[in-house]
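User: Design a sequence. Structure:
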């Protein structure tokens, strides 16, 4: 029984260590902006994956702005109420969430 407990502890430690080293994981508290702070209240969102996500956003010409966060980016159109989130193949929920909040605020920190 002790070997089983030791094995579980070791596996849990390795998993926690791997998560702590992943630059895309972010467990800090984030709250979506209140409606009054949103530049785009209810955007239509598209999600793309590109190996060079930030460069891809910088090359798009038909947008009102873009923001980069870690390995991803988001660009938006205020008139069309759209946002396009672009990430690499290595993506986390927290990365997509941060990019979505940047979409809602048109790049202003929330």
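Assistant: Done.
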């Amino acid at each position: 029984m002790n070997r089983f407990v030791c094995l579980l502890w070791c596996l849990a430690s390795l998993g926690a260590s791997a998560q702590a080293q992943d630059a895309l994981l972010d467990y800090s508290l984030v709250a979506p902006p209140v409606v009054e702070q949103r530049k785009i209240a209810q955007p239509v969102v598209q999600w793309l994956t590109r190996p060079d996500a930030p460069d891809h956003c910088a090359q798009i010409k038909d947008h009102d702005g873009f923001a980069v966060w870690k390995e991803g980016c988001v660009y938006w159109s205020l008139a069309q109420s759209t946002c396009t989130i672009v990430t690499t193949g290595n993506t986390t929920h927290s990365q997509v969430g941060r990019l979505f909040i940047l979409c809602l605020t048109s790049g202003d920190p929330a």
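The two ends are 49 Å apart (CA to CA). Strands lie at 44-49, 65-69, 72-77, 82-87.
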